[in-house]
Amino acid sequence: MPTLDLCTEEEVANLVYSFYDKVREDALLGPFFNAHVKNWDSHLLKMVDFWSSALRGTARFRGTPMPTHAALPGVSASMFQHWLQLFRETTATLGNSPMQARANLLAQRIAESLWYGYQLHRQPVQIPQGIDCE
Ligand code: HEM
User: 95 by DSSP, 3-state: which?
Assistant: First the structure.
């Protein structure tokens, strides 16, 4: 299958490993991720597959993000906001503006969708809120 030439596989891996280094050190998200990620090595490999599929069209990712996130206890809009902030800080350091723009846009859309699905799963009778409503 042809891949997109937005970025290289090395740039994808760099994005993923730099981002999760930040996440793991973060006061809000670090303890949460460390409590819920069972195996960091396999999580990071899976996230490289996810972003390689999203940014390079490699179609390597096999997973089910919606049920995985819906099963996590105590996720909030502010956690998604913060996740996106750290992600944008990371993509700004990559030195690849087209990749930065595309990754930020995809992350925003996917975060909104995951947060929407999370609320529908947890509180089906309430109207779901956007990420910025808190
Ligand atoms: C508050 C924000 C978020 C939190 C706390 C969070 C947390 C987690 C956790 C704990 C896992 C499971 C890891 C494991 O099983 O070892 C996971 C998996 C995953 N996350 Fe997130 N996440 C967040 C936002 C996002 C966003 C915005 C994206 C995409 C743009 C994303 C993409 C993924 C993917 C692709 C997986 C793998 C799903 C699978 O195994 O099928 N996450 N996340």
Answer: coil
Given pLDDT bands bounded at 50, 70 and 90, which one contains residue 42? very high
What does the pLDDT look like over 54-111, one tens digit per residue?
999 999 999 999 999 999 999 999 999 999 999 999 999 999 999 999 999 999 999 9
In the 8-state DSSP scheme, what is residue 5?
S
Burial class, 115, CB count within 10 angstroms (exposed 0-12 / middle 13-18 / buried 19+): buried
Q: Which CATH class is domain 9-122?
A: mainly alpha
Pair 15, 58: CB distance under 8 Å:
no
Ligand 1 proximal residues by C-beta, below 6 Å: 32-33, 36-38, 43, 46, 50, 63-65, 68-69, 72, 75, 79-80, 83, 107, 110-111, 114
- How far apart are alpha carbons 123 and 112 in whole angstroms? 16
Domain boundaries in the chain?
9-122
For the entire predicted model, the pTM comes to: 0.96
